[in-house]
């Protein structure tokens, strides 16, 4: 019986609309859709400031305040009132806002439209749930210390009903509403980093000059657990790291963005649950430097993945995206080789490879199938890796030179570094895909032939050159590697030693902190942020806002 009652309560909650959701709807239908349908929520400084205001009110008010949760199945609404007061026999709902009131042409304080709908909805809900007459609701704007009265009349009740109906229609839709025209609202929206309204406007109008609403960097740490036998657990709101023969280390969870467990380190179930709740990515790398997998904590609506399935089930759409990807990677490789021609040591082989790659790249847009595209990509890769050794300084020891790409296992030190770097890169791309909520197993170019997720392999191509190839080449030419201490030789196989892995992780994470000005949006972001931005731009390709994906080409 209790289970039936709980089930009934849940059913009613699903069928009713939150009053705060109507506030979002009046602010921006796309915001409503992202929160209510795709279940995306972010908490910016304004959200926390609003919470602090309510906490302060509870402490400061001398009068008796009553907080009330209401639900009306008949009206289709539910919500929690900020406060309820009785004045002259009238019951009055109150809403508190941290900001300033809207001013009319006579400079008189008025409610903003979204606030007006919200307090009307609370007043109407109070009437419906308690069977009483409510004549008005009041909004107190704390920034200018004014109270605005909003009358609940028939027009107000009709406005609430129409909003509920619009919300129900949107909740059933599989299509995300377009970006609104008023960009000033976007600048104050906490979901702008997810919605990317400026990028959507740029996609429709290439003359648009977007402002950066996307955060420049994720300042949380990426913690690599490199020591075998280390255990990771939870203590309170902190992550506890216990290494052999070392003091226990604790790190506040809010300071951690990712935990990367290398080799035979362990993590407890409690810590995994905690990481999932805190939005901390958990990834696993083998002792040999191979990416093993990630803890998938995706939650929320399936709508994003339904749109992905629909788009990537279309062969033409996949081919078009794959062409962009091959051009992006091939152009990046060619531009990297061109940097070698700026020095006096440029070689004929280097110049020849650059010219041949240019010719192949011209043919890529005409590729009629993924198979023919694979052929072009293979030609580009062969030309690139054949000329790559010419970028290595003559002063570099012979043991660290490069004579061609090999892997599984790597047969020389240079390839050992490339393979480990690509594993770390795959981990970061996967972290971004899971953060955005797409399906890693469904890509548009790579096919599901191995355990590696095709979409992650697709996106990996964009970042190989700037994050791994350039990092390895720069470190080799700067003489940062010890051919003996940083590597382990096992027969023909070559691996990074623990010292070498530690050094590489430091170089790689340092490279991720560097900023790069996006060639299309025109604003700068760290590479750490560019992972997520590129995944979100990919999603826009099948959301009617495409044209920006795959443009991260080395200058």
TrEMBL record:
Signal peptide: none
CDD domains, per the entry: Cas1_I-II-III
GO MF annotation terms: DNA binding; DNA endonuclease activity; exonuclease activity; iron-sulfur cluster binding; metal ion binding
GO BP annotations listed: defense response to virus; maintenance of CRISPR repeat elements
Swiss-Prot/TrEMBL cofactor(s): Mg(2+); Mn(2+)
Reactions listed under catalytic activity: exonucleolytic cleavage in the 5'- to 3'-direction to yield nucleoside 3'-phosphates
Record family assignment: Belongs to the CRISPR-associated endonuclease Cas1 family.
Job description of the protein: CRISPR (clustered regularly interspaced short palindromic repeat), is an adaptive immune system that provides protection against mobile genetic elements (viruses, transposable elements and conjugative plasmids). CRISPR clusters contain spacers, sequences complementary to antecedent mobile elements, and target invading nucleic acids. CRISPR clusters are transcribed and processed into CRISPR RNA (crRNA). Acts as a dsDNA endonuclease. Involved in the integration of spacer DNA into the CRISPR cassette.
Complex and partners: Homodimer, forms a heterotetramer with a Cas2 homodimer.
UniProt name for this protein: CRISPR-associated endonuclease Cas1
